[in-house]
Fold each of these.
Amino acid sequence: MSTKDRLIESTRALLWERGYVGTSPKAIQHAAGAGQGSMYHHFSGKEELARAAIDRTAEEMRAGIDAQLSGPGTALERITAYLHREREVLRGCPIGGLTQDPEVMATPALREPVDQTLSWLRARLAQVVAEGIAAGELSPALDPAATASSVVATLQGGYVLARAADSPQPFDQAVEGVLALLRSSAPR
Amino acid sequence: MSTKDRLIESTRALLWERGYVGTSPKAIQHAAGAGQGSMYHHFSGKEELARAAIDRTAEEMRAGIDAQLSGPGTALERITAYLHREREVLRGCPIGGLTQDPEVMATPALREPVDQTLSWLRARLAQVVAEGIAAGELSPALDPAATASSVVATLQGGYVLARAADSPQPFDQAVEGVLALLRSSAPR
DNA sequence: GTCTATATTCGGATAGAC
DNA sequence: GTCTATCCGAATATAGAC
């Protein structure tokens, strides 16, 4: 892995763990085993490096989720699989967590990929919900966009509850709770 | 309002807006119109002040929600009212947002009130769900604790989606989505 | 109780040698 | 490309006068 790649990977890890305001150039350099000069040779500064790191995380996440939601199975099965996707619950969502960082929200270049990723996710999930309705698996009374937002919010909020409790339990409960509601709304 | 009170109130606002790592003693002093000496006279440092601020926010939130959930109306009506409670959506939850702050999570004295508040909220809401099941308003197939976690997670996650999109829309969608699911799960 | 002065370390970067 | 030196202001206090 090149020095540039190591800088990006270290930044990804630190942004996930400490956020943008909580991450210093010095910490990034140390984690990457690179000197100051090296970092400022490859990137104009902390912001450009963070953008590269966020982009990489966003692309990875998007590709993984899309593969899962586009895979085989009924709509409800794919939503269930997505909700049960393996996650490092106590670390939170590496993209969603950035919405709490004041500098990220105030910097268009950093905010953009976060916005795009979560908007894409809601839209993609709404498609799957619509497929489920069309197939008669889900109630035609459901609004695909609203239901999709609820599912994504359950995950994002599940992370918050799990981190507060220092336990994955509330996350798992929230997921099972929303799945039970989805299943119980099926046409009978 | 005393200087001490102004320090606490300013800290509350800054913690909400910028988090703990993003808030400096200097910024607090400036917002409170107090000098350094003043702050260090009333509090041992940033941590003790933050604890006082978080405690105050947590108590306020808890009292307000409890009043609403203990009020008149059926269980489903009270849950609906709680979900429709007026909120500054784009600012996020002043308690839930702290779970994303690495220093808060690493400091037991700061983490404790956050944990307590969200745990209390899940338990309180689970009671209301149980009342709804007992009254025949909600499906007896629902698990009160899981359903309560889903409802709280929908709110916390709704804030995340709204902040990412810089619009309250995804929050409102998530709330309406979960309410539709709750209603559609009612025994028929 | 509040103020000003001082101290130490970190944050975020630039300059220029190798 | 990478390194070391250097810069300036901010973060987080402590000390002691008023």
Amino acid sequence: MLDIELIRKKPEFVKERLSTRDKTLPDLIDEVLELDKRRRKILTELESLRAERNKKSKEIGLLKREGKDTSIIEKEVREIKERIDSLEEELREVQGKLRDLMLRVPNLPHESVPIGEDEEDNVEVRRWGEPRDFPFDPKPHWEIGEKLGVLDFERGARLSGSRFTVVRSWGAKLERALINFMLDLHTSKGYEEILPPHLVRPEILEGTGQLPKFEEDLYKCERDDLYLIPTAEVPLTNLFRGEILKEENLPIYMTAYTPCYRREAGSHGKDIRGIIRQHQFNKVELVKIVHPDTSYEELEKLTSDAEEVLKLLGLPYRVVELCTGDLGFSAAKTYDIEVWFPSQSRYREISSCSNCEDFQARRMNTRFKDSNGKNRFVHTLNGSGLAVGRTLAAILENYQREDGSVEVPEVLRDYMKADIIAPA
RNA sequence: GGAGAGGUGGCCGAGUGGCCGAAGGCGGCCGCUUGCUAAGCGGCAGAGGGUUAACAGCCCUCCGAGGGUUCGAAUCCCUCCCUCUCCGCCA
């Protein structure tokens, strides 16, 4: 959520920043300003009426103790009350509308974010590693996986429909090895390992920004009013919601492995083959809760912590900075890490690292007491470290050999207790 | 799932319709004093919002959340959430 005071004081600035995302957003701000004005007008009037009522009610108490008649003054208060009631209803309506609107306004892009419309305008920041030269035609991961008996698409669909895959034998083992490897790496760098619930309340998703706008993308358990998490970012970031943290406890670093559940409502036809886009996939997530002064440094560190995974796995990648038009709803700035897929001869997203500044903190009401004793909103960051299914796919492709077997990356061999995955 | 108890400020805890934003204690901050592995005395201190040049003043709201009753609610009623105890069920 944006700071309403900022919108009031610098509406043109806010509109200019939002228009870099989407030209229609400034209209929302005009609506916000209008509602805010109405809200304050009602509030001022309402408060002076309440003050009057409070004063007179106190008088009634005093008069009654003296045994005096209070019928006239009671009638006055009753009249005031009627006006209060109708103003309160008006206020509730305006405030509800305002809140709903505010929850649908995305974060302001940071000034350093390149202006652009879509992913075409993202800016490559750096590359690491050399894509391997294959003496044969590299196969896509789904072919390799099926041939090795590690990806079973047919039975996955039988159980749950399209975009569900069964991972078997050495594939399951590789997936587990990856999860352990990633968690071990991150915890060695000071991230606390967390095992959060996978089902959360609606207000939790509102806290991180998935609700109310992206309801369609979520799986919901209707009878219990709970949602399956689309990413561990959701429970981790919300962990301290409503709390006032101590400044000396910042920064907080957390990591978690969870499955992620996404309806992929808007992506019909995209990435139909393989395991790039699934309704359920594993991810190791990184979340930081930090002092506002340090959040951009922390973003750089977070991104390099995610990159470290790919370096150790020996997978070539590049880092791109998302342009304003491609930025996620809650993010002020985002780096995507894209890994090399030889069969497609291109880099594909495997991690997304964002600084949300105080956008989520405001929604969750997570604050800290600064050295002056003032309560301020924290900044929150999140990044994949990494998407495990895509990592597995990338390993299958980048480490494939002509005979259809796949070499196990060196750092995983102890976890796997194997050097090679060969057809059964 | 059934029966019961309860949710008050950083913590503990009083408060059953008006003088309660809330006693008291602990902890915290400031000052004084004594003079020493600390005590005593005095003072200050919650959050959000409106008004405003103002982190001055004034005002409003907040005693788990949301509704309601009442001239007036922490106190009465309803719904929900959470915690605890007992029973049942269960990996």
